Batch of 2 targets.
Target 1
Amino acid sequence: MAVTVQDIARKVGVNSSTVSRVLNGYRNISEETRRKVLDAARELNYHPNSIARNLAKGSSASIGVVLDASNSEEFSNFFFSRSLFAIERAAQSYGYNVIISSSYKEGEKRSPIEDLVMQKQVDGLIVPPFALDAHLLDVLNNMNFPYVFLGQPARSGLQVSWVDLHNAQGSAQAVAHLYERGYQRICFLGGNPDAGFVKQRITGYTDAIEAHQKPYVVNTKGTPESAEKASYQALKNMEEKPDAFICCDNYTAFGLMSTLKRLQLNVPKQVGIVTFDNFPLAEFMDPPLTAIDIDTDLLGEQCATMLFQRIEKPMPSQQMLLSTTLIKRKSTERA
Amino acid sequence: MAVTVQDIARKVGVNSSTVSRVLNGYRNISEETRRKVLDAARELNYHPNSIARNLAKGSSASIGVVLDASNSEEFSNFFFSRSLFAIERAAQSYGYNVIISSSYKEGEKRSPIEDLVMQKQVDGLIVPPFALDAHLLDVLNNMNFPYVFLGQPARSGLQVSWVDLHNAQGSAQAVAHLYERGYQRICFLGGNPDAGFVKQRITGYTDAIEAHQKPYVVNTKGTPESAEKASYQALKNMEEKPDAFICCDNYTAFGLMSTLKRLQLNVPKQVGIVTFDNFPLAEFMDPPLTAIDIDTDLLGEQCATMLFQRIEKPMPSQQMLLSTTLIKRKSTERA
DNA sequence: ATGAAAGCGCTAACAT
DNA sequence: ATGTTAGCGCTTTCAT
């Protein structure tokens, strides 16, 4: 059915290995046969069978990306999927396919990821840290299989490669910006305490603020209602009444805004706001919120790039933190 | 390096084809050799090489999903990625891998999708309709390659298979619900006019409303600001002043809410609101908004299922519309 | 610069 | 019920 190297070889009158050489750009080929082969390939509308090619070469020309499924929280999936798209783009430019796979393992079956690796379907893996259990981690390490974590693992002792956003730096940027604008008592409004990055954001705040004031972290569940209540309490606390908030995400910021309206506190005059993330609300609030933007595209791209390096040659583990960007808007424009 | 069927065959003292038969669950195998082979496989920690297997079987055991890249609008990507996860889950249960690929074609290269298909890397394709140009469509049809559109194509004449959400039905549900609650003059607040589903939502509204009133569609750009202005105008129009709105998405609803606060109109007493989509804001607004929810998981799952049917045996094209669900909340609770 | 032949690891048609 | 053999379509020695 399909056109093969043999067909081209017959048509041109050479051996199939010669065709292969031409198609793979080997140098020691006479200009004449090269042209003839290429012409024939075009005429016959030849497309290499990548499966056969991969079998012969002993590679799969694919990487696997493990989906962030256990964390099915809609919001974080959004950021993850942005990175996923960027990974695909990078992979394409390196000539790799991207196979996605959930980490979910049903019943007694082997985990789909283990299958992906052991069955030689992928040459490398991009994984959210929590998706790898101890067993799988062992397997990968023992066979020296290339993988990169998309996000910093909680157990920081591990000698593994990862790429993550510099959440702590984001907090520091926010703190610096708020002080620069004249705010004096800065409160951190926390988010869903289960998410790893929330801890990093809080720690970053705590570290950065110490030079100026006692840290003031108010925890919330990450929902607007929860943030509304928590921020209300904070503003009723007359002793340490904040004049600025750093919100852990757009939803807590949304809740905070409700409280401020209720208390008739003016933003940015009486209260300044910086929020983490520039989605889905920051720019649409009234006033638009100064935001710590994270580059999820870059995250995916760097993650993929790091993986390809590791696939091409073994190397010691690397870690990379990507800078956040402060987008200044009305909510911190104190006169 | 890796363990092969040969290794097992040698160890057990049978031929590799026998091993293959056992591993593939053929019936005419003596219980004894079956056990010996399976034991040996386990002992040697055998994993089949899927590339070799695919080459021999002439299939790839993979499907391709084309990424919604040209439409990089963050919001719609969110819904798409939800479907993507569901596709992966379905594929896994059918024993297929999912390869993602952007449709973006750089320079003179062939499109990545065409490569995916022609190089036998995938057995079927799930595609957002716009991602397929006329040429590629021809290629696929001529070779009878199985594919399913994720979303209804704009050119409705095409005899192709697709799965989509029943947007028009959603509008009809909203209209019926609002009338039932006693609202009388229902206005549709449109969204980004470039999105295909927006047209469907508007048409659904227009059709459903005709029994009751003259259709009243107010267009917006899909941003909160735009929706705020447009809804303000609508409410100033004394002749046909609406007492209810159907919003094309959560962002237009957000804009509308600003206007209503400004005009001090009470929701749900003076104005009722139904919004399309239950993300990211509908449940967090004050009051929480009645929403037309769409099941993006189901969308992905059905799309995949349809594709697998078509891969297994050729069949006439099918189309499927998935029902929307009305989630009733405070914003339509007229006393 | 090119041909011949072996082989990647598996499955399947044909024997027995 | 099992062994033999021939591929799947490509790459890659090893010759010449």
Target 2
Amino acid sequence: MNIEQLELTEKRIKIFKALADETRLAILKTLYHSGNELNCTEVGFTCDTSKSNASYHFKTLREAGLIKVRKDGQARYMSIYKETFDQILPGFLDTL
Amino acid sequence: MNIEQLELTEKRIKIFKALADETRLAILKTLYHSGNELNCTEVGFTCDTSKSNASYHFKTLREAGLIKVRKDGQARYMSIYKETFDQILPGFLDTL
DNA sequence: CTTTTAGTTCAAAAGTTATTTAACTATAGA
DNA sequence: TCTATAGTTAAATAACTTTTGAACTAAAAG
């Protein structure tokens, strides 16, 4: 396996790990169906857990490249990182 | 969430967990590119681990519905369970 | 400047998954 | 029947992930 293949494999594994969790799938579903960015508190409500745990899941999704976060004042707005899905899991978002 | 949605979510999580592992991705890659069924020993060689560990990974893939196994005498022949990929991850197999 | 709001980080505990080794089952061949 | 081959299973352990609660940072409002 060459280096790009290895990196692709690592990227895939990170993404699949991030997707292999009910809370994180719920977060993605909420984001995808909302159509636009939401703040952490709003998303946190829908996933029924503590804010520190929600923050942990946001980080996991961010590090897998599945969401992106924009900071504005106190609030952080997150949204689906569509490019990653298109590259690694074409067609998946529409099945959510 | 209704029962079908829940079951779909559980199915997805099982699949993503199964895909979130280097050894199992290697097994799927080998199977997909071979174009036809291979026996456990052949697949085991390509994933560089003990036979019991290979067997553990086969089981994980089987239980996620990602491979199917046909028994013939002593040998077991496995192949990609294409329907599952088509349903849950359309387009993914071709990126492997 | 003090307090509230929004969110992150840290460390410990709890839970889950992967690896290892040895024992096991089932079929095939001598 | 005895032995080899192909693979599974079980139990222990190692490695990893998730949850929790408390302490923290940074911006906004009073």
